[in-house]
Amino acid sequence: MAAIAILHGLESITGRVPKLRKTAARPSVCLSFARFCGLHFCAHCAIGFANRIRRHRGPSMRLSRYFLPLLKETPKEAEIASHQLMLRAGMIKQQAAGSYAWLPLGFKVLNKIVKIIEEEQNRSGAIQLLMPTIQSADLWKESGRYNAYGKEMLRIEDRHERDMLFGPTNEEVITDIFRTYVKSYKDLPLNLYHVQWKFRDEVRPRFGTMRSREFLMKDAYSFDLDEASAIQAFYRMFVAYLRTFHRMGLVGVPMRADTGPIGGDMSYEFHVLADTGESAVFLDKRLVDKPIPEIDTDFRSDLTPIFKDWTSLFAATDEMTDEAGFKAAVDPEHQLAARGIEVGHIFFFGTTYSKPMKATVTGPDGQAVEVQMGSYGIGPTRLVPAIIEASHDEAGIIWPVSVAPFEAVVINLKVGDAESDKASERLYEDLKLEGIDALLDDRDQGAGGKFAAADLIGIPYQLIVGPRGLKEGQVEIKHRKSGERETLSVEEAVGRLKRLIVPQRRDSV
RNA sequence: CGGAGUAUAGCGCAGCCUGGUAGCGCACCUGCUUCGGGAGCAGGGGGUCGAGUGUUCGAAUCACUCUACUCCGACCA
Asked: Which parts of A198-349 fold into alpha helices (H)?
């Protein structure tokens, strides 16, 4: 108690009490001191204590104190909807050609996407690590790619005039890590992945983060003793990818793809269908509604049936087929010619890197065997615009709940009105308490601007609180996607939102 | 890398042709009135006109050079 008194005394002396009262800092300090003193409450703050505990859960997301630079007009450099909307919604800022800063709202979405990717990679048995962005050229000289890669690779010289590079991909580094530590076939299979920034000095970056020079990539690398088990590793990633894109509210259609200079015939690209996609794609439309492998899929079992099931239906990019071939292969009633955004690419390439880099393990017969490898990429910084391309309207973005920067926004229509302030604060706190990722729009501005902002940034549910409804004890929920509005009592609102939101998180599908 | 274009306040633009020292809308700041779909009134702040060189008494404006960015094509998670 003495300590608390001293603390409050200091605050009084510095004259900062009124300011501190408005922040979370002071109650948490009080509580810490109270606990330190073995008390269950702070004598000084006893009034309204319960409310203060609530506020301590999670960061405060009050729009009046957030950093969300919205643009009313569309910057002229943006051509496609996703790029325009990401700029207008204050998600990104261009810093140079193909180089973007991720502002808080954009970063929040990016992180949700990365989290889903990590969960599904982990579920499939892959193990996360982190490799550097700047690599030594030596490994690339060893694999033969230092000269082969061309100007797309950003080459750097350090102070000792050593050749370095900003990694465009990580096969060399992961192979080096593997060969250093893994010596026995008993340690296989192994799949290591990371989520790390890449740089490819594209001739022409465009469409915002859809094709940027610096981009985030999840890249996984599998190592197996023989081709048969390597193919199983490939299937595991195939299934993980189906699940990953589905959880983001996307249909990621696997398509036979060109392996390019890597060779071999095991390569699939995952495409999100969108009018602005860069590739022409041809597919059997039954793939679009095909149920994805469920959460209890056993990744230690033989996944061949799932792979065969999915790949039995026709799907290919224009690199692999043409309209004539497509029409000959698919029943007319199932034909779908569309455009696609490539959001993932999986390769099996055998010993392409293990051979020149001498990545071998000792097999059961005591002989050294070059490991069979595959690599598997997903671009989170491309997924953000891909999701927007697939889901937006005239008013702005329509986020699927699973990747939405906020699941719900409480819109206080009349800031300064005692009833409206109190009810919206309370509803916001209750949503947080129920584990909903909520935002409170407590900015002192007109209702129209708030509705427009909520629509633009695409929050799935708007909880509209204003004096008019409160007179009847009512609030309104607007569904961003359908435009549907429902009026309900203040008491029912949080429960209703929770029942709407939780199933759409897709974290248990 | 081939072709085309743009550069004037944070964003969107006018002014350039015909040279005379920069303007509009939004945003921002102050005050008042407002507040259920991007409010109104009044006042205010902010610009080496992408950079450099040249022509000229005088350059955002004319000429040349450079740079950055965007679009179309070939390449890519």
From this structure: 227-247, 304-311, 323-329
Instruction: Identify the residues numbered 225 to 284 in chain A whose C-beta atom is closer than 7 Å to any atom of strand B.
Output: 260, 269, 278-279
Nucleotide nearest to A77 (CA to C1'): B70
Cβ A378 to strand B below 7 Å:
yes
Is the CB atom of residue A150 positioned under 7 angstroms from any atom of strand B? no
Query: What is the per-residue pLDDT for A147?
Result: 86
Q: Give A395-509's CATH code, choosing from 3.20.20.60, 3.30.1330.40, 3.30.43.10, 3.40.50.800.
A: 3.40.50.800
Burial of A244 (0-12, 13-18, 19+ CB in 10 A): buried
Cβ-Cβ contacts under 8 Å for A426 (sequence gap 6 or more) = none
| Alpha-carbon separation of residue A319 from A276, A280, A314 (angstroms) | 18, 9, 14
A416 CB below 7 A from strand B atoms: yes
Contact flag, residue A171 CB and nucleic strand B, below 7 A: no
Instruction: Give chain A's mean pLDDT.
Output: 88
Token pair listed for A383: 């997924």
A407 CB less than 7 Å from any atom of strand B: no
Q: Would you say residue A10 has pLDDT above 70?
A: no
A91-133+168-390 and A395-509 agree in CATH topology: no
The CATH number of domain A91-133+168-390 is 3.30.930.10? yes
Q: Is the ipTM of this complex over 0.85?
A: yes
Q: Where are the domains of chain A?
A: 91-133+168-390, 395-509
Q: How many percent of chain A have pLDDT more than 90?
A: 77
Nucleotide showing the shortest C1' distance to residue A95 CA:
B69
Question: Is the C-beta atom of A52 closer than 7 angstroms to strand B?
Answer: no
